[in-house]
Design a protein that fits this description.
By secondary structure, the chain is an alpha+beta fold. It has 2 domains: about 100 residues, Alpha-Beta Complex (Creatine Amidinohydrolase), CATH 3.90.230.10; about 70 residues. The protein is built from 4 helices and 6 strands; from the N terminus they run H-H-E-E-E-E-E-E-H-H. The protein has a 3-stranded antiparallel beta sheet, with helices on one face. Strand 4 and strand 5 form a beta hairpin. Helix 1 packs antiparallel against helix 2 and helix 3 runs antiparallel to helix 4. It is globular and about 50 Å long. It starts with a helix and ends in a 26-residue tail after the last helix. The protein binds 2-acetamido-2-deoxy-beta-D-glucopyranose. The site of 2-acetamido-2-deoxy-beta-D-glucopyranose has 6 residues, from loops.
Amino acid sequence: MHPSCHLTVLILCQVEAGEPWTELSVEKRLDEYRGRQDKYRGRSFNPIVGFGPNGAVIHYKASEATNARINASSLLLIDSGGQYLDGSTDVTRTMHYGEPTDFMRETYTRVLMGVIDLGKVVFKKGATDSRLDILARRHLYEVGLDYLHGTGHGIGVFLQIHEGQNK
Ligand SMILES: *[C@@H]1O[C@H](CO)[C@@H](O)[C@H](O)[C@H]1NC(C)=O
């Protein structure tokens, strides 16, 4: 299982039990878990762990001043990755440890629909990401929503993790 899977289950149990998880403690635990893996050589980028409104801040970096305590009433975004001898990773997960609102369910589902459409598309070699981007956004556009960010990027191997595509 991927280390972030263990961690999200652990947080779920402990948030329910009232344990004081915060954005910074999640970050620290991610490093610890990845650090136990054989081929791990370090972070592939600074993790983004954002709870509630912080999760909507693009490229958010938790600090002592902003560090939110995680509870069961909003969404937790974890975007992190590692450099491994056999590859680099960039994994994003969105969790809710209570009862998501209808709006959270709808937007999460519409984003997921876009991801599935992108995963299924057959495209010609040389198609640029800007040609495929609409597939990811269309289910959001249908209800007047959007996201203020690119849809994807290259990962590379032991590079900067946000690589341009090969043209
Ligand atoms: C949960 O966290 C959010 C965001 O930090 C905060 O606004 C809210 O008051 C918290 N709710 C509870 C029940 O602690």
